[in-house]
Amino acid sequence: xxxxxxxxxxxxxxxxxxxxxxxxxxxxxxxxxxxxxxxxxxxxxxxxxxxxxxxxxxxxxxxxxxxxxxxxxxxxxxxxxxxxxxxxxxxxxxxxxxxxxxxxxxxxxxxxxxxxxxxxxxxxxxxxxxxxxxxxxxxxxxxxxxxxxxxxxxxxxxxxxxxxxxxxxxxxxxxxxxxxxxxxxxxxxxxxxxxxxxx
Length: 199
Fold this sequence. Notes:
The protein has 199 residues and is mainly α. It is built from eight helices and no strands. Helix content is 82%, strand content 0%. Helix 1 runs antiparallel to helix 4 (106-113) and helix 5 crosses helix 7. Residues 1-6 have low confidence and may be disordered.
């Protein structure tokens, strides 16, 4: 047993490192999304066209991955809940985010969206009964102050700022609800249903 636990340590460290890299990649992609959207708008796209392409391509790609890996869909009741997450939650968040880009700088909108960890932490403490540690509270305060200082230099209309904040709030609710709805469901199946419903 001791040998197994010792040999497990490098594997756990590798998994943790891979997890951190995936989080960093996800955050980078989210940050770049606002910049690519501005390029799309400059090329003549509108919010509806941009979102349609985004979700249709994602749904097709995830459908192919689901089929190739032979992963089945969850029970119908769970599929309906995931579809509501995608068709209502994800679409609403995306609509607010991409609409905000028409009324504020991409950097400002992206920073407003990244207020969602603060909202998620508060909502998770209230609804999921997650503990608020001192370290977490300090980190959130520092992040919020830093974001506030940076956002203070950004340019945007009140509508753009409101839409950016709405995107963060909707995304926060989406994450907290998703923590319960997606529990025990394969991540690829979850993403496929959500993207398809959003499309």
